[in-house]
C-alpha cells in the first residue's frame, strides 16, 4: 500500500524551474532513498513532502490527504532538515518537553531508553553541542515522538561511523517493528544503500531512475566467460546485455535477466570458463545509467 503519493509535482523558484511533474510513491514500512547531486532539488522535494513548502502544481498525499498545512497529518510526520533547528538556550530536556507537547504519540519511555544508547547530557544546551551531537539530538527527539513518517535531509552528514551505525539500526528497527515509513535524501549512494528498499535518482527536475533494490540485486549479474567456440548471434538475444568487454579470450558481460536463464544459456555453450558474480549496487547503477545514456558518477563517489 502506498502511503506517500506524490503526483505531477512541479516547483519553480521565481522563474527557475526546480522540479517538473515528479511522481513518487512510498510504501508503508519502507525506506526510500532520494539521491541526486548538489542542487538537484532533493531538499525542495522533501520540504513539499513534509508539508512545509507549497508546490506550484501537482499533489502530495499522505494517508490520502493533502499534506500542506494539514495539522493532523503533521503530527505523524517528522522532518529533520539538513540543519536542525533548536530554540536558543533550550536544554535537551526542554526540547523534549516541547516535542512531548507537540506530538501526541511522544513516548517518554522511548526517550529515556535512547538516552542510554546515545549517551548525551539532558541538561546541556543543545546549541552548545557539536554539529554531530546536535544531529544525534534531532534523531533522539524524532524517534521518541514515534512518527509514522520520518523525512530526513542528508541525515548522516557529520556523524561518526559508530553513531551512524547506531542511528541506522534505530531507524531500521522502527521500520520493522511499527512500520514507520522513511524518506532519506543523500548525494551519495553508498551512504544509504544499506538501509533503503527503494532508490530514486533526481536529475534536472525529473527522476532518472527509480528502483526496488531487491529486484535490482537479483536481476543483474556479471559474467566472466571463455568459449571454446564463439556462440551464434542468436545466443545474445536470450537476455539483455548492458555492457561487454573482452580481455584476451575472456569476455565480461553485465547481463540483465533471471539467474537460472543466464546459467542455462551459458551452460549450453559448454564454456571453458564460466563465473557469475554479484554486482555492487554502485556497479548496477553505473551500468543501468549507461543503458539510458546518462552519467551519474557524482553520486557514486
Ligand atoms: N528559497 C530558494 N529560493 C531560490 N532558489 C532556491 C531556494 N531554495 C533552493 N533554491 C534552488 O533550487 C535548487 C535546488 O535546491 P535544493 O536545496 O532543493 O537541492 P538539493 O538537491 O537539496 O541540493 P544539496 O544536495 O546541495 O542540498 C538549487 O539550484 C537552489 O539554488
Automatic annotation (TrEMBL):
Instruction: Cite the InterPro entries for this sequence.
Output: AAA+_ATPase, ABC_transporter-like_ATP-bd, ABC_Transporter_VariousFunc, P-loop_NTPase
| Gene3D superfamilies linked to this entry | P-loop containing nucleotide triphosphate hydrolases
- UniProtKB keywords: ATP-binding, Nucleotide-binding, Transport
Q: Which stretches make up the ABC transporter domain?
A: 4-229
Example GO molecular function term?
Answer: ATP binding
Q: Which PANTHER family match?
A: ABC TRANSPORTER ATP-BINDING PROTEIN ALBC-RELATED
Q: What is this protein called?
A: ABC-2 type transport system ATP-binding protein
Q: Which organism is it from?
A: Amphibacillus marinus
Amino acid at each position: 500500500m502506498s502511503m506517500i503519493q506524490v503526483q505531477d509535482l512541479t516547483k519553480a523558484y521565481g522563474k527557475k524551474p526546480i522540479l517538473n511533474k515528479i511522481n513518487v510513491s512510498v510504501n508503508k514500512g519502507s525506506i526510500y532513498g532520494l539521491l541526486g547531486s548538489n542542487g538537484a532539488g532533493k531538499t525542495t522535494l522533501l520540504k513539499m513532502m513534509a508539508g512545509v513548502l507549497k508546490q506550484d502544481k501537482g499533489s502530495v498525499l499522505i494517508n490520502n490527504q493533502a499534506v500542506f498545512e494539514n495539522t493532523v497529518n503533521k503530527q505523524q510526520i517528522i522532518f529533520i532538515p539538513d540543519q536542525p533547528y533548536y530554540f536558543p538556550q533550550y536544554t535537551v530536556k526542554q526540547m523534549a518537553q516541547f516535542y512531548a507537547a507537540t506530538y501526541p504519540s511522544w513516548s517518554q519511555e522511548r526517550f529515556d531508553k535512547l538516552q542510554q544508547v546515545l549517551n548525551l547530557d539532558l541538561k546541556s544546551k543543545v546549541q552548545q553541542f557539536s554539529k554531530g551531537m546536535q544531529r544525534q539530538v534531532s534523531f533522539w527527539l524524532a524517534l521518541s515522538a514515534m512518527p509514522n513518517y520520518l523525512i530526513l535531509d542528508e541525515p548522516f552528514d557529520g556523524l561518526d561511523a559508530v553513531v551512524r551505525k547506531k542511528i541506522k539500526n534505530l531507524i531500521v528497527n522502527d521500520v520493522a517493528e511499527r512500520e514507520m515509513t522513511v524518506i532519506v535524501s543523500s548525494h551519495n549512494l553508498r551512504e544509504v544503500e544499506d538501509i533503503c528498499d527503494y532508490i530514486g535518482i533526481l536529475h534536472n527536475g525529473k527522476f532518472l531512475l527509480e528502483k526496488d533494490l531487491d529486484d535490482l540485486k537479483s536481476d543483474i549479474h556479471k559474467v566472466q566467460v571463455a568459449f571454446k567456440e564463439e556462440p551464434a548471434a542468436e545466443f545474445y538475444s536470450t537476455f539483455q546485455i548492458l555492457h561487454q568487454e573482452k580481455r584476451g579470450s575472456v569476455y565480461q558481460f553485465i547481463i540483465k535477466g533471471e539467474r537460472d536463464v543466464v546459467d542455462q544459456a551459458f551452460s549450453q555453450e559448454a564454456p571453458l570458463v564460466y563465473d557469475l558474480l554479484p554486482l555492487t549496487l554502485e556497479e548496477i547503477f553505473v551500468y543501468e545509467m549507461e543503458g539510458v545514456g546518462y552519467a551519474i558518477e557524482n553520486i557514486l563517489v
